[in-house]
Amino acid sequence: MAFDRKAYNREYAKRPGVAERRRERQRERYRSGECDEWLGEYRSRPEVRVRRCRNQRRYRDRNPEKVRGAQRRYFLEHREKMNKSRAEAIARFPEKHKARGKLNKAVERGVVNKPGSCSRCGEEVESHRLHGHHADYSKPLDVEWLCSICHGAERRKDEAVA
Ligand SMILES: [Zn+2]
Fold first, then answer.
1. pTM of structure
2. For residue 120, which of 161, 154, 96, 156 has the smallest C-alpha distance?
3. Which one of 63, 102, 128, 152 counts the least CB within 10 Å of its CB?
4. How far is the CA of 161 from the centre of ligand 1 (A)?
């Protein structure tokens, strides 16, 4: 019988330690940064971006305590940097900050009604995941309610134009 390389490789992969060694080598390559450039290109593909966004959301939904712990640790370790970059963002775009504040107040008071789904793709999302997109910050209550994916796409479009 002729040598069947595919069958041999399948059997070889089942030997003790082979899968672990492979995984370790993949991990080393990933950590070495040699794939960073390609990964950056790959992750910026629209279909990959949407898939990653959904997967990350699913992970956050399933592991809320892990995510909260990681966020808290990150904030405590980078407290000064975080406060500084927030202050810088507000100083750079004060009209954005004001518009968001006014909109949030209006939603709290029931002046503005937040819908239950994205006005662009129709996806039903939890209230805190629905973003009010400002086309014009001088009209703080005039927003389009978008899910995070549509909002991200909209922002990238704006940034490409600007
Ligand atoms: Zn959407």
1. 0.61
2. 154
3. 128
4. 21
User: What's the CATH fold of domain 94-162?
Assistant: His-Me finger endonuclease fold (3.40.1800)
How far is residue 57's CA from residue 126's CA, in Å, rounded to a whole number?
A: 12
Any idea where the domains of the chain sit in the sequence?
A: 1-44, 94-162
**What's residue 143's pLDDT?**
96
93 C-alpha vs ligand 1 centroid, how far in Å? 25
Residue 119 CA to ligand 1 centre (angstroms): 7
CA 61 – CA 65 distance, rounded (Å): 9
Span from the CA of 117 to the centroid of ligand 1 (angstroms): 8
Cβ-contact 53, 149 below 8 angstroms: yes
